[in-house]
Amino acid sequence: MFYWLIKKFNLKTPGRDEEENEKAAVPVTEKAMEVLKALGNAENIKAIDACITRLRLEVYDTKKVDKKRLKDLGSPGVMEVGATGIQVIFGTAAEGLKDEIKAIMENPQEVTVVESAAPAEAAVERTGGETVMTSPMKGKILDLTEVPDALFAEKMIGDGFAVEPSEGYVVSPVTGEIAHIFETNHALAIITESGLEVLIHIGIDTVKMEGRGFTRLSEIGQKVEKGTPLMKFDLELVKKEAKSSITEVVVTNMDKVKDMKIIASGDVTPDDEVLIVR
Fold first, then answer.
1. Which of 65, 68, 103, 124 could form a disulfide with 11 if both were Cys (CB 3.0 to 4.6 A apart)?
2. Catalytic: 201?
3. Taking 50 as the threshold, does the pLDDT of residue 6 lie above it?
């Protein structure tokens, strides 16, 4: 399912064929069309972007945003930020929705509605057993409720743990395969051998850094084990430019989880087991 959630359409503005004077149709899903309507349509949007899990918008009139409709469309939360800011949580589908909505706004006459792709099962065996996660970095273990971001603190997209890092080096906390690395390198997703979808999100509001200070040490599709290097980042730069350096490790498909328990406290290293998931 994670592959379906993170799938992005190729939605760059089509070029014009000078000889035939035609534009290629731009495929978008009905969900993207409905989300745009719930946001008050294109004329209500000043700007739109996305972090790994949420749409970030500046709108002309927040009263035109239909929060109930957005929740009906699958958003677990809609937040107002300041006088004109809106954040709509859609999990890892947010990035793809942002691209589709931009395409609709830029090419309203060329869009064609397509059916949403059916969720695909992850290409791993679901053992239904126990998964023990280690820390992805050196630092201090925290409960998600201590994270200064409601998205994680209120467990809107899943449950897990957080680490306040003492160095800027991230390794895999599980054995599995890298499903996605986000363009700004501030977050990545791994599917474990048991089918868990694990999101590692470095810092809070680090998407605004646009990749500055982050160095990718792994690739999409790579098989990883506990301790495999994933990412380096400039910790001091993150502390300076982002809201927080606290890093979250979240299981996003909680329907596959019976229970989980944090088994570590205080300072941890990548050698330390910190979470049991059953």
1. 103
2. yes
3. no
* Candidates 51, 163, 190, 200; catalytic one: 51
Assign 17 a pLDDT band (cuts: 50, 70, 90).
Answer: very low
Q: Which residue type does 156 have?
A: M
Task: Indicate if 51 belongs to the active site.
Answer: yes
Res 71 pLDDT > 50: yes
Structurally, how many domains does the chain consist of? 2
Helices 30-38 and 94-106 meet at what angle, rounded to 10?
80
135 and 37 in a common domain = no
CB neighbour list of residue 194: distance below 8 Å, 6 or more residues apart: 124, 125, 126, 127, 128, 129, 131
Q: What are phi and psi of 224, to 5 degrees?
A: -130, 155
Q: What is the pLDDT of residues 83-135, one digit of tens each?
A: 999 999 887 788 889 999 999 999 888 888 887 554 444 333 444 589 999 99
Cα angle 39-74-123, degrees, rounded to a multiple of 5: 130
Q: Which of 54, 56, 138, 201 is catalytic?
A: 201
CA-CA distances (angstroms) from residue 98 to 70, 189, 231, 244, 274?
14, 19, 25, 24, 34
Prediction pTM value: 0.72
